[in-house]
Amino acid sequence: SSSSSSSKCPVILFPHGGPHSVSSTSYLHGPAFLVSLGFAVIFVNFRGSIGFGMSSLRSLLGKVGRQDVDDVMDALKGVLNDETLNNNLDKNQIFVCGGSHGGFLSLHLIGQYPDQFIACCSRNPVCNIAAMVSTSDIPDWCFAETIATTTPLLDSNTVKKMFDMSPIAYVSEVKTPILMLLGEDDLRVPNKQALDYCNHIKLIGKASLRILSYPGNAHPLNKAACDADHWINCGLFFLGNLKS
């Protein structure tokens, strides 16, 4: 982090998407920008990430929303309890940021741990797998991650399981301020479910909410103007929620 040695860094927990992807040591301009603002960023390769063997990768199938959430929280606790880092990190200022499955995890985290996080930035998140399965261009993903099969048999038990494994199941617990960043042309995770999640947030009334919607942008939010705008807004949102 660029923060001075006399001050502790607020922390951004940054789970990757996929979920069968990985946070590598390559340069990522978004997180690098957040570090330049004075934040420490924690990348987590939870079980299910690539690069750790097929057994680890397959262990997540049918367990999203539980195993991956537990792994990310264990990683956060491990870092915060590391004596070599204790003097540099502000344990009272923890933020969370993620896109796609990382957004799914970020919303799960603020729902399952409502007192842990100061603010949440979620980019094109999976909010309700039960709704996503009928609208996404990868419905097989929904089956694989929730019931560990790609067989498209959508019965009432499967729909319930998909719902229960989604962030929407915990929305009533959320009180963390949210910045929602959405691509209007996203076919992978259509933004209707995110907007529905946001409607629940507004109806419940515990959490503040801001939505930024980007025309002409799909799942990656990577067109130049959108790419710059959404990272700048993410940084400003986190800075605006820092405790004095």
Structural category: alpha/beta
Low-confidence stretches: 1-5
**Number of alpha- plus pi-helical segments:** 9
Q: What percent strand?
A: 15-25%
Q: Into which percent range does the helicity of residues fall?
A: 25-40%
Written description of the protein model:
This protein has helices at 29-36, 54-58, 67-80, 101-112, 129-132, 139-147, 156-164, 192-204, 224-240; strands at 9-15, 40-44, 89-99, 120-123, 178-183, 209-214. Residues 1-5 have low confidence and may be disordered. Helix content is 37%, strand content 16%.
Give a short summary of the structure.
By secondary structure, the protein is an alpha/beta fold. Helix content is 37%, strand content 16%.
Element layout with pairings:
Elements lengths: L8 E7 L13 H8 L3 E5 L9 H5 L8 H14 L8 E11 L1 H12 L7 E4 L5 H4 L6 H9 L8 H9 L13 E6 L8 H13 L4 E6 L9 H17 L4
Parallel strand pairs: 1-2, 1-3, 3-4, 4-5, 5-6
Write a concise keyword list for the protein shown above:
single chain, 244 residues, alpha/beta, six-stranded parallel sheet, 9 helices, 6 strands, 37% helix, globular, disordered N terminus
